[in-house]
Amino acid sequence: MTRIEILNELKKVFAPYTTNKEMLESINDQTDLIKDLKINSANLVDIIIDAEAKYNIEIDYDSADKIINVGTCIDVIVEKLNQNA
Amino acid sequence: MNSTGNDIVSLNAIDITRTKQYRFYSKILSTTEKELYRNAKFTAIPFENFVWLLWSIKESAFKYLQRIRPDLIFSPTKFVVKQLHLLSDPIITNFEAKQTEGIGFDGKDSINGMIAFGAYILYSKSLIYNELIVSVVNCDENFENTAWGIKLIDKSDPHCQSMEVRTLLVNKLNSLFSADNISIGKNSNGVPTVMKENKTLPISVSLSHHDRLVAYSFQLAEGRSCDATSIKNLNRGIQIESKR
User: Fold this and answer.
1) What CATH number is associated with residue A58?
2) Which of A52, A70, B118, B218 has the fewest Cβ atoms surrounding its Cβ within 10 A?
């Protein structure tokens, strides 16, 4: 699975938690989940749980700490997918 | 260093089923906090609300420390609520008022906590209504110079939340300091600051919002010493600034 494919799938993961649909369509690695997508911090755990379910991975505490923007989110997913491979 | 941190959770916006799932709450609560709920017999508070109570305390503690350590990352399980005290039989009411504000928590049935993050020890006060949980964190058990406010707003979009919480806070600061030109800015780390005529005032503020609820907190005294003259001194400081 490529980073672009993951990025496009993440748009669906983020969609329920952001009202900034315009920004969602144009996300890139630098897009900050809280500052740019205006996702409430209370929903960050939801996003981690949804990503875990979607990719059948487990995101541990240390990895969850790294998820700040779209790029770090993809990094964590790729790392966990590789561990499962 | 003077700081403050707050957080508000709209209980109408949480997913109760998901919150009760181990997979979810284990990313927020540490092992000792799960035991805290079992042992303290918080029967008046359903488990899902306990999870969000602790979330609000942890997020408030993070915001408090973020002003001191801008590189800090919010990692909920690393902020550990060590103690939590509430009345033995608290009556949890509806949030009847559209807006409520206060300085200190005297006369309020607050839930009082102690939180550890590494070597830091912080203290919290939380209020629970049927619709919301709000928390404020301070470096001291004394909250008598901690100002706070909560408001129910009409819309939940981020622009509206941001505008409403700033207006609520600015109105309070203007009335408290007999000013009319205070505004809220952000420093380079994204931490909110209080501005007056392009100068940053030495007042730590914290803003939060969730769904149709917004809240603020600010600390009136400088440093750990929370004395009764702080408001007067701060007022004097503002007047001196405005004369320059």
Assistant:
1) 1.10.1200.10
2) B118
Domains identified in chain A, total number: 1
Q: Which of A17, A56, A61 to mutate to test the interface with B (most CBs of B within 10 A)?
A: A61
Q: What is the pLDDT of residues B165-210, one digit of tens each?
A: 999 999 999 999 888 899 999 998 889 999 998 899 999 999 999 9
**Is B158 close to A49, i.e. CB distance below 8 A?**
no
- Say whether A41 and B14 touch across the interface (CB within 8 A): no
Which of B61, B203, B79 is CA-nearest to residue B125?
Answer: B61
Q: How far is A51 from chain B (nearest CA, A)?
A: 12
ipTM: 0.87
- pTM score, whole prediction: 0.90
Give the residue numbers spanning the domain of B64. Answer: 5-243
Print the domain residue range for A56: 3-84
CA A65, A69, A73 angle in degrees (round to 5)? 65
Helix and strand totals (H; E) in chain A: 5, 0
Give first-to-last CA distance, chain A, whole Å: 12
Are B151 and B98 contacting, i.e. CB atoms less than 8 angstroms apart?
yes
The position carrying tokens 């590494």 is B118
* Structure tokens, B210: 């969730």
